[in-house]
Request: fold
Amino acid sequence: MYALTLPASTPFVLLATVLGLSWWEDHILPTPPTEPAETLIEAPFVPAVPAQLTELLSVDTPLTREVARR
Reply:
């Protein structure tokens, strides 16, 4: 008989745990300070300017010391 009681009561124990934690969060934990809505809005994200790509070598350019330094 006890073998049937434990599996049948498990969802109710989990539900009671979740409801108890929810109540504890609402009533026991301190509330964060309220801030005006204007301070919550941040400046829009502006991406940085992409780096300038160096000139790519063409296939026909011979590899010389000047070209290799680029």
